[in-house]
Structure formats: structure tokens, C-alpha cells
Give the backbone structure.
Amino acid sequence: MLLPMNWINQLNAFGRVATPCLFVLDFELKKPLVLPLNAVNGEAIRFNFRGMTNSTAGSASYPIPVHFNATPPDFQKYRKAFDLVMAALQYGNSYLLNLTFPTRLETNLDLSEIFNRSKAPYRLWLKDRCVVFSPECFVRIENDEIATFPMKGTIDADLPDAAQQLLENRKELAEHYTIVDLLRNDLSQIAEDVRVERFRYIERVSTIRKPLLQTSSEIRGKLPENWQENLGTMLSRLLPAGSISGAPKEKTVEIIQQTEGEPRGYYTGVCGVFDGTNLDSAIMIRFIEKRADGLWFRSGGGITVNSVLEDEYRELVDKVYLPFKGV
């Protein structure tokens, strides 16, 4: 584990000499991990980022049926936090804030088994710490072009006219505009010709309980040819990820820390791989962590002045799932 801030210099150094590496950066940047790929111990860390992986495990021998029970957060505790966030929004200290809560889990799968069985673009397992099966890219860099795909807006896919409901929801539309604008500005700090390629397209996610629909956008920009030499510095300017913090970032993060009352740790941090030429990375959402008292799933959603308490609580609960079908 690197000392805080040393991760920037380490990634810059790896970028200068085109050393393939893995990085896992926690939300508070208190316990960053940066390792050359040839030093990643598969007994302690496993990853699969859109097919780039150090894992050869299959998914055949797991308990059947799968047991998965989630105890949602106490509604009154959530209401109290929600009211604090709404007060901050009404005072104008923030205009979009991602509020998260932990949910207690009971399952007959361990973290390693969940990693092996999950269907998600980005997966990470840290032994005795956490497992991530994230659908959301942080940034992807190919051919000197950087792209990000902010994900905002979730609905039960089985609801009547679910896609239309999601696209026409005024609160979700306003939230999506806010996050796209924020990330466009973020990319403009390090890239040129920043533009929105696609706005609010729908993706379907299969879960152990029910399918979900989510809306994302695609934003792209052009990086200088020598971007690898400043890999760590560049990533540091984009953190924390806008879609899981809010806007404006600095003040919103202060409110998050006051309201949530505990560090997020690796949850909502970022992880990724630099292969020596290109980079792919994810935001660490859809996150299960192992604590002394058992397993906890951490989830949340974006709050605006137009948010409805019951809707936001339902979205938090809907995001607690395993990304595969039960038996």
C-alpha cells in the first residue's frame, strides 16, 4: 500500500516507461494500491476489466440454490440523512449529491465465488475486503482519446413502459444533464475537443432478483500524445468521479462525509489497468465489503432538490443485487 499522494508519482513513473500496471484508488485516497501487472498476486487480488484479467477461475461449482437475503437500511435513518442533504441543496451548497447507505447481506456465496460468477464489464476482488461488479466505466483511453460514460438513472425494467418512464422522468433528466456537464468540464481540464457523443442511452442489467434499466451518456476528448508520462497527475485531476460524488465536487464531498458518517473506503473509488499504451478503468459501485460483523452491500443514488424520499430509497434498495440469475 502506498502512502497518500505517492500513487500519483508511481503511476507517472509507470507511464513514462510504459509499464503495465493495476491501480485501485479508494474514495478518500487514504489507501491507494498501484502495482505492476506482473506483481499482482492472484491469491490476493483478482480483476477482469472487459476481458483483461488475471483470473482463470470458472463458475461451475457453486452452491445451488443461491441464497441471497438483503436487509435494507432503516428507513427513518435514511430519511434523516436525506433531510440533511435536502437542506444543503436548498441552501445552495450543492445541486447534486450522491447519498449512499450500507445494506446487510446474507448469502451462501463468499466474495471469491461472487467475483467468479458475476456478469459485469468490470470486476475486482480484494481478498477478505471486498468484491466489485461494476457496470460503470470511469475513463477509457485508446489511441490518445479519452472517454467517460456517466451512468445516472435506474428503474425496474419490468414496470409498464419502463424505458419511457425513465427517459421522461424530469428529475432523472435534470440529474443527467448536471452530471454530463460536470464530466465534460472535468475532461476539459486534461483534453481538447471534448464533446458529448451520445446522450442518455439505455442499458439493461440482469440481476438475481429482477432486470434493471439504466441510462448512460458518452463523452469524449483528445489527449496530448505524451499523456502516459502524466498518467497519475491526469487521473488525480478527475477524482473523485463526478457521478458518485456530485457538484460542485469539493463542497459536495464535505457534505457527503458529514452526512454518511463513515469513510467510503474503496467503495466509489476507481480501479483500472494501464497496459503500457491504453487504459481502462471503472468506478467501484455494485460493491460488497466484508466487515467484522459480516457482509454489507453499499449502494446509493443522486439527490437533487426535485428528489422524492420514497423514490430515492427504492432506488438504493433496487441496486442491491448479484449480477446473475438465481436457481
